[in-house]
Structure formats: structure tokens, C-alpha cells
Design goal:
alpha+beta; 6-stranded mixed β-sheet; 4 helices; 19% helix
């Protein structure tokens, strides 16, 4: 019997790390950041994690988080104008967890040196879009990734 391997269609992350930045409300903020590159797309997933102070939540300073990533984008040779930005919340985001995960797509405008956010273009992802996303990139569970990279939740 001859078996064939099915081609792997989902992309593993190029980088998964804790991103730290100076929050617009003052103090340091952080989130789990995963960067993916497929032949047809560049995707960044920013996941709010519960060790980040809720007064410095990711959603309160998406621009600060995106701009803090600019050096990494350059190092990875990613085009800042071509990135799909996804924002991710779930049971890993707060000690009073959500019952389900929430995904949104942020629309950033690149002005040549930094990002600006266009809130009018915010999009909440629908279940079918989330399923398609999971088929295109390898999105491991947040707690597993945090454990793998050695990040301890407070």
C-alpha cells in the first residue's frame, strides 16, 4: 500500500513573543504577539493576556502595540503596508474570562514611519472567517504558547 503525505497548508509563526510597549495611558503594557508569513499574506495576531494590567489593555492602545513592532517587521523583511492585523481575546485575557474567543481585524494606515488606526474599518470576525484563519495559519492555544516561550501568567 502506498501512502502519500498531504501537503501542509497552514503556516507556522515566524515569531511568537511577548511584545512590550509604553502604553498611551502610561506604564508598560504587553501582549502575546505572533507573526506569520504565507506566500499570499502577512498576518500579525495580537492576543490580550491576563498578566497585562487591564488599565493598559491592548484595545486601549492598538497603535502603540503596532508601532512597537516596527523594528521586528524590518528585521523580518515584512512590508508594513501589507499586513493583516488580528486582535484576539478569550479566557486567557482576564481573570474573569470570556466564555468564548473573540477575533477582530484592525485596519492600520502606514504613513511611511508609523501606524495610525482607522477605527471605522474595525471588523469583528465571523465564525466562518475564524475557521478559515485556523486553516491558513497555525494558531496554537494561547496558554500553550505562553508555556512554550516561558511566560508565566500572574
Amino acid at each position: 500500500m502506498r501512502t502519500t503525505m498531504q501537503p501542509k497548508t497552514s503556516a507556522p509563526p515566524l515569531l511568537q513573543t511577548i511584545l512590550h510597549w509604553s502604553h498611551i495611558e502610561g506604564g508598560e503594557a504587553h501582549c502575546l504577539t505572533r507573526i506569520y508569513q504565507r506566500f499570499d499574506a502577512q498576518i500579525i495576531v495580537l492576543s490580550e493576556i491576563r498578566s497585562n494590567d487591564r488599565h493598559r489593555a491592548l484595545m486601549l492602545d492598538l497603535v502603540g502595540a503596532a508601532n512597537a513592532l516596527i523594528p521586528s517587521l524590518s528585521d523580518l523583511k515584512l512590508d508594513p503596508k501589507s499586513i493583516t492585523w488580528l486582535i484576539h481575546h478569550g479566557a486567557f485575557s482576564d481573570y474573569e474570562p470570556l466564555q468564548h474567543e473573540e477575533w477582530g481585524q484592525a485596519s492600520f494606515l502606514w504613513n511611511g514611519s508609523q501606524y495610525e488606526l482607522d477605527w471605522n474599518q474595525w471588523k469583528s470576525l465571523q465564525p466562518s472567517e475564524i475557521e478559515a484563519l485556523h486553516q491558513s495559519i497555525e494558531i496554537a492555544p494561547v496558554f500553550g504558547v505562553l508555556n512554550t516561550i516561558g511566560w508565566m501568567q500572574r
